[in-house]
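Support case: H79 complex. Customer-provided input:
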Amino acid sequence: MIELKYGACRAEPRQDASMQRFRGHRVGQFIHWGLYSLPAGRWEGEDVEFAAEFLPRVAKIPQRRWEALANDFTLADFDAGRWADTAVALGARYMTVTTKHHDGFCLWPSAHTDFHMGNTPSGRDVLAELVEAYEARGIDVFFYYSVLDWRHPDWRFTLENDGDHEAFARYLDFAMKQLEELAERYPSVKGFWFDGTWDESVKANGWWTWEVERMLKARIPGVVVNSRLRADDFGARHVDSNGLLMGDYESGYERRLPEPWDHSVAGRDWEACMTIPQASWGYHQGQWAQSTLKHPFDIVDMIAHCTSLGGNFLLNFGPRGDGSMQPAEAAIAGKVGEWLGVNGEAIHGCGFAEGWDYPGWGYFTRHGATGDVFAIVTRVPASGRIRLQLPAGHSLAGIRLLGSDAYPFKRLADTVFEVELDTSRAGPLVFALDLAALDGSASLKEPNPDVLN
Ligand code: H79
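Agent response - structure generated as follows:
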């Protein structure tokens, strides 16, 4: 073990109530909303491909013109309650919102900059409105915060000379003050999702990332912080130089998921975040973004995939510049939520099913409190049949199709069973397995201590 001052704070996953609550959520709603939601990927009549929130960089928009967008941020159709309703419809248990993205624009009236929503025509504190609306519906709120800041004069990508060091020290002080401000103004926030921490400047200041984690935890009991914030004494990110996870959960899965058979990831808490279009986080009105929207059942597949490996799934929404949700995204949320409404007991509060091999046709999940094991069928074999291969010593007393009843199955061997799928039903089928010991003596339920509802 290398001696580290700013490495991981612990060797094992957190087991306190706040962390267990976060772990049980499994489905969250990510929100990217800022000035970039107004041009929505189009500048001077031209669609600019790639992510809408990258527009000012990709289209090299002069800073003054970008800042002038604030005058058009009138919130003509913004209602925090309607956003929160889409999260409820989705079946999300938490929401993570961009308080400040890379362009530096803040959704709350920060005392440390003029570049914020309070200085737009409505002057509203939309962050306060969001916290209130989501929490009123029982949905936990998390704050995304970009450390990277394209606008702040003291931001540096690299530290080449004394001037850079002095400027960046001022920048880190500014960002710390903003984070203290967020913690003070919105003390019910459940966690922070840091982004924009990959530059050499941040990596050379691991102490600051450690100090941010410490400060937030001192001010907000139970607060959950993602690994992306952190760098250690040597600039190692996410995982410190001793191989231990920094922050509370691994947040490196962006627009990608671990291989479904890679059971090693289940040893830590983690979360994957995903766009609905192929690549844009902010609302992009271009045809490419709008024609690559994911099918709700492919999103369901990803949710099951993450749950089966003990991870959360954070699905991103890009509301429009007027404050309204994109109807297509709201409709997708509703379809995913319909599936979760029937099958959510295989997702919420569930996690990795230790001892169960990756089945190829989908995923196994296990409920943390009850020990119930679920088979989620996302890839129907050409035969229309799946094999249930049980761990040694287990037998199957029955199976139940969620949203329906007991379901027929065939025993092929002591621990091998076959199920002919009802392919007339839309969306992935889920079976709850009623397990018994092979000798028939006892019910076999093994709660997974890592996951509780
Ligand atoms: O907030 C979302 C993204 O805006 C942010 N993280 C998620 C959660 C993010 N920041 N950077 N990146 C994602 C990846 C950057 C991709 C880029 Fe490019 C590719 C930057 C440079 C090359 C294309 C070309 C876009 C900008 C230049």
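The CA atoms of residues 395 and 414 lie 7 Å apart.

Case will auto-close in a few days if no follow-up is received.
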